[in-house]
Structures are given as C-alpha cells and as structure tokens.
Here is the input.
Amino acid sequence: MKNWILVSALFFASSTVYAADLPPQGMSMAKVQQKYGMPSTKTKAIGKPPITRWIYPDYTVVFEYKHVVQSVRMIKEDTPAATTPQTSPDTTPSTPAANEAVIKLDVQQ
Here is the structure.
C-alpha cells in the first residue's frame, strides 16, 4: 500500500514540476515578462478578443487581452530532416500510427 502512495506521489510531483515551469493560465503579460524574460518574438494582436502570442525558444505563450490562456511546450524531434518523408500538402496518411494525430489546416492569407 505504501508503494502505491509513493508511486502516485512521485507521478503527481513530476507532472506538477513539468507544468509549473510554464506561465500559468491567468498570469498577466507584465508578470510573464518579469518572471520569464523577454520572448524571442511577439506577434501582433489578432481578432476579437485580441489574441497575442509570445514565442520563447522552448515554448509559446498565448494571451487573450493581457492574460495567459495557454502555454505550449515545443518538442524538438531528434530525427534529422533528411530522414523525414516528404509529402505534398494535400496528401495525408490513410491511417496514422497509434501515437500520431493528423491535422489538416487551410491557411488563408
């Protein structure tokens, strides 16, 4: 019984630490800049409500008005680009692998 409690506590602690190193939901832009520093890139506010993104080297912070709505960690793949299969934008795999998702986006400029 003690082992299960210990394992559960370790799992919870490790997941909390991972999420705690990103700006939390509701934090103001001023606090994010004070605690995490200047981002590499800031996008202009787009839409209503205005959505702004601050891009850091390892994560992106999305703001609605002046408060965080989501922080997203960027995962860098170890696979070199030369070994990645090239597909046309209209081609999607018929069946994704168990750990993959397929998202098709139409971008208008």
